[in-house]
Fold:
Amino acid sequence: MLIKSLPSTWDVEITQAVNGKEALDAYRAGKADVMFLDLTMPVMDGYEVLENIQKEGLNSFVIVVSADIQPLAQERVKKLGAMAFIKKPVNPDLIESALKQYGIAL
Amino acid sequence: MSAMQLTEDQRDAMQEITNIAMGQAGSLLAELLGNFVNLSVPRIKVLALAEVARAIRDMVGSDIDVTAVRQSFQGYLTGEALVIYGQNGCTELGDLMGYDEELDRSEETELLLDVSNVLVGACLGGIVDQIKNLTEAHGTAELGFSAPSVMAESVPADALINPDKLSWTHALLVEVNFTLEGRNFISHLCMLMPEHSIEKMCSILDRFVESY
Amino acid sequence: MNGHITLNDSPQDINLPDFIVKWVDVGIFVVNKKMEVTLWNNFMCNHSGLGADAIVGKNLFECFPELPKAWLSKKILGVFLLKNFAFTSWEQRPYLFRFPHNRPITGGVDHMYQNCTFMPVKGAAGEVDSVCITLFDATDIGISQTALKKAMKSLSDSSNRDGLTGIYNRRYLELRLSAEFDRCRRYRDQFSFVLFDLDHFKRINDTYGHLAGDEVLRVVSSHINSLLRSVDVMGRYGGEEFGIILPATPMQSALILAERIRLAIEQAPVAYKGISIPVTVSIGIAEFEPDVPNYEHLIGCSDRALYHGKENGRNQVTCYTPELESKTASS
Structure:
């Protein structure tokens, strides 16, 4: 559902991960320039993924996309280095503007 | 039997819808209790009657006593919601709501019913908000709720639902649980829908998948 | 008819929903965010004595100062905020408004029990403009539920009671003793068990008759019961033998209480048909120890102490110690 909300003009290759651990592995393998990260996931949740990215000093460009709308959740992911927080259900315009804000060519 | 299972797409869609609804319910709970709430990954499953006790055991654990509140919902979707609390759910709640004095039994029960009602209303309301434009009713599919009531107090989790006394064969189970950070509190919200609601839900989910 | 619903024989069109809201036998009223009443149906008028004219447009809490304002306004504001139904049940909160009920003759309660539902009324924009509250008369359910509960309680109570003395029976006493034993073992707490016996009870029966003996049992057990704390549990163990569970009580404190009991009974002969019957009791005390294997063993210890007191001349309190075993064995 998120994939279909991405700007249609954006020419990218998409790798999907079903949980946090897979996502982290893909990131480590350099498969992602931009990561859209959910927080509520099995095996490894989004917070742990962010922590690991931070710990390993990986160059991160993570946009958290989550249904967890507690203000504290947003605060926490920002502290862990997330670039943006987008609430579910996803508004495609917000994704586009977040990407543009960080200078990603669409 | 096979008709009574969700396809992978349908399950993903239900999980996504529930996740969003739960986020809203969790945020209300956090505000109500003044404590950060950890959300779970929603569990979506079509259950045969014989699997119910096992499903509940899998969710809450086998050798603990639980207290449960039930509430009916009716309207476009029909079913029952159970909110299951662990052993010290009641006392933890009183503590969190900032009641200094010890609550008497009535006050404790009223608090439990209120919190359950907020979770059920927010979660189901959130689900219906997302799907109401996909129903034949076109945006008018609102739910009515019965008053919540205490279904069981401090009973073994196994004894909560007795399959021998029930007549349905399949039900759609949607479960999420809320834990409080730094607290020994957990509540499981189980929404159970009977056969005819499953069929309705499936066609809604198909339309939800198509709409993306 | 163009879509209007009319009632037969009615000179003008009647708006049916309005008619129903007005006359239905359920309380319905609506408040806005300022807690001003915007609708007040006949049920509310009739039971509160305040007509719609008198209350619509006014603040609910000013019209009814006896309402629990802090709680109720929080409940109503919660519905505005959460956009969600809310409920109250007579079981936890018997009433919202203290209305008289419609069973003044047969009811046995002094007000109407109420179940209430609070419904968010959403405007076109989806915002909650006001809250509609419905109030169902649950008096009949309340009365029958309360009676049922009372009957169930007295039923379970009577199966736990001794028919003659009205105190707990042996079955219940052992049940509680077993539970207390398990509790103390788990939480490393302490308690004492007291066993006492009326001295020469056979002689009382033989001298004054069995009816006098029964009266002695009744009077002595109720006298002793009145000396106990509310947490203590006393039951008839058999014949003229009684047991008392003293939670959270070490042997030293149990001894003080037992001595008080012994003295009180000694000083208060039982009056029966103009005759004064002197009564004394012998008392044995055992204290819970973590290494005691089961509660039956604890009863055995208190029985040993009681037996020792009987041997030593009766009308006395004896605390169980392991040394008693050898003494009993040698005597």
User: Anything to note?
Assistant: Residues 105-131 of chain B form the longest helix (27 residues). The helical segments of chain B are 8-33, 52-60, 89-96, 105-131, 195-210. The mean pLDDT of chain B is 84. Chain B touches chain C at residues 28, 106-107, 109-110, 113-114, 117-118, 121-122, 125, 144-145, 147-149 (CB under 8 Å).
